[in-house]
Amino acid sequence: MAGLRVDFGLLLEPLGFIKVLEWIFSIFAFATCGGFQGETTLLVSCKGVVNKTVTAAFAYPFRLNTVVFSAPDPKRCGGTWTDVYLVGNFSSSAQFFVTLAVLVFLYCIAALVVYIGYKHVYQQNSKFPLTELAITVITSFLWLVSTFAWAKALADIKMSTGASIIPGIESCKAPGTTCHFASVTSMGTLNVSVVFGLLNMVLWGGNVWFVYKDTNLHNQSNRICQSPGIYPTQRGI
Predict the structure, then answer these.
(1) Which of 12, 61, 78, 138 is most buried by its number of CB atoms within 10 A?
(2) Strands 37-46 and 49-59: what pairing?
(3) Average of pLDDT values for 166-170?
(4) Total-model pTM
């Protein structure tokens, strides 16, 4: 009864097809966020230096407070240039989002193995659908929380690496020193990661219904609705 029986039929049903989409979308979610690398560039003019490019390279998990700008020249503008760090640590939101995506990726692989090879066991044991229902509900909520937390963190990352950082750099306020914002790496892929987070949230939320239909909770409610009503006998006057 518990042996392997390969059957791809469930993948053609909503339950299996959505699971494939969840697996694919989780890959895009952690790849677009976890694989990002960028840099912020300034143009600095100071003693003996004119429009020197200084950069601060940052990447996942976005501990920006550990990222320092390169010095304009070996003499550090005559000693007036001190180490300049970006502001903010957004690793908790980024790692929460990526970790969830990786765990979902692994879970979807395990679920697809069960769907394809052990469909008969899944359908015969009522505990499997109930367990999957609980996991699906929890995962939907986690996608909601992690996506909005990561979206907020991304907005703060853009502020901490954009032109607004200039007024906060003390070295740029030294006499004879001027700083101009040059560029920052496009964060389009990070925007895409938020979109995939929202798509995952919608997919998992919608899949709650299809998983619920396979549980005995749904079967019990159907039996109650389909059972004939019992009405009290009316007495004649």
Answers:
(1) 61
(2) antiparallel
(3) 90
(4) 0.85
